[in-house]
Design brief:
Low-confidence stretches of chain B: 74-113
CATH architecture of one domain in chain A: Orthogonal Bundle
Largest sheet of chain B: 5 strands, mixed, barrel
Oligomer: heterodimer
Largest interface: A-B, 84 and 76 residues
Strand order of the largest sheet of chain B: 2-3-4-6-5
CATH class of the largest domain in chain B: Mainly Beta
CATH architecture of the largest domain in chain B: Beta Barrel
Number of strands of chain A: 0
Strand content of chain B: 25-35%
CATH class of one domain in chain A: Mainly Alpha
CATH topology of one domain in chain A: Rna Polymerase Sigma Factor, Chain: A
Low-confidence stretches of chain A: 1-22, 123-131
Shape of chain B: elongated
CATH topology of the largest domain in chain B: OB fold (Dihydrolipoamide Acetyltransferase, E2P)
Distance between the termini of chain A: 74 Å
Helix content of chain A: 55-70%
Number of helices of chain A: 10
Radius of gyration of chain B: 29 Å
Number of helices of chain B: 6
CATH superfamily of the largest domain in chain B: Nucleic acid-binding proteins
Strand content of chain A: under 5%
Mean pLDDT of chain A: 78
Distance between the termini of chain B: 73 Å
Order of helices and strands of chain B: HHHHHHEEEEEE
Structural class of chain B: alpha/beta
Chain lengths: 207, 214
Amino acid sequence: MSFNGDYSDAVPPEYSSEETLAAIAPEDRERTLVTAARRGDEAAAREIYRSCRGPILSLIVSLVGDPLQAQDILQVVFFKAFRGLPGFRFRSSLLTWIYRIARNECRNHLKRCGVPALPLDDILGSRYEADGPCGPDAGCARAEAVKRAVRQLPFKMREVIVLRYQQDLSYDEMSRVLRCPQGTVASRLNRALTELGSRLHPDGGRR
Amino acid sequence: MSLRCLVLRRRFLPYQEGGLGPGQAGRLEKHLTGCADCADRMARLRAGHEAGRLFGRLAPDLPGRLPELADLRGSRPPARALSPALAAGALLAVAAGLAMIFVITGPGAARAGRGFARTTIAEFPERLRGRVVTEGFVQDVYYDGEERTLHIKLAEGPSEAGPFVICEVRDASGLTIPQRGSRIRVYGQARFDAQPGRGWHEVNPVMEIAVLNR
């Protein structure tokens, strides 16, 4: 082996300023940010955190049920993400990679704590209007019923519904987060939706 | 339930999502008119799919303000919501803070003694395997563009002949390339490369590099 080789290829693109970032393609931008964060650029780390915290926190809240616990888990997730950043290989988007860390952290948290935190209404089993008119309004009875039903699903069912409908992930992205084939994702989602429909409409849901 | 039912049920979700062609959708609809079990299952799936779409439009119960990165480093996690194990992890996260984020270019002291045996370059013949941490001067650096690996020749001194190890970094992206003559600390797996023409000790793969002086 010779040690006179040119290693200029190893030098990653430079991250310099917001203006530079805005001018480059999203994939390159992400690569540049990650590379800069690995080098110790705090502004890049802050930008990664700022762009990912919203979807990650909403995923965690939906999986564990309690916003306060979710904030603690968010802390652990980003700690692990930044610690593991040198090992990120760009095989998926950074957000998909952090989704996976968050999903695993939620699963581990629920294993330790038993069950997701449920509001009192869920425990007491309040009535709901599953067929009433409703929009995306958190106060609507049907919306509350749907949220409650999703919260009460087993973790594996809940996570596919949250990833698909709330986080709007494709089957390909879901298979990366869940580390299983797309066919498995589809059949798991099929079962989850059937179960969700059965819980909301014990009579069978026919109209 | 017939085999036909089993096969067609796999198409229920694509049907709900509008992913079936007109022919497949037509055959499925025809089957549903004659199979009460499948029609019932499809009705439940449809109800679940519509509930899922509604769920996706609902705002999650997020806290009023999204935490900033500084909040994560500086705040104490609320004790009420934490299990002891999670609390310990979260506090560790705060304590470690940026030092762990910037692990590649930092002093690297945090990893020393945690499963990595301190080994001088001269001691490598006595340690053919296992995780090691070693220090030395960079005598040469070579980047293999085809393999995308970075090789660093590390020796006891900046230029003199003598024992050396080859440190192989398998993913060099994002790494601050150490300059020739700089002193570095390397964490990784000790190996011996017995291939013809080589016969040298290695740290491969390198897990972490700390630049001690440039």
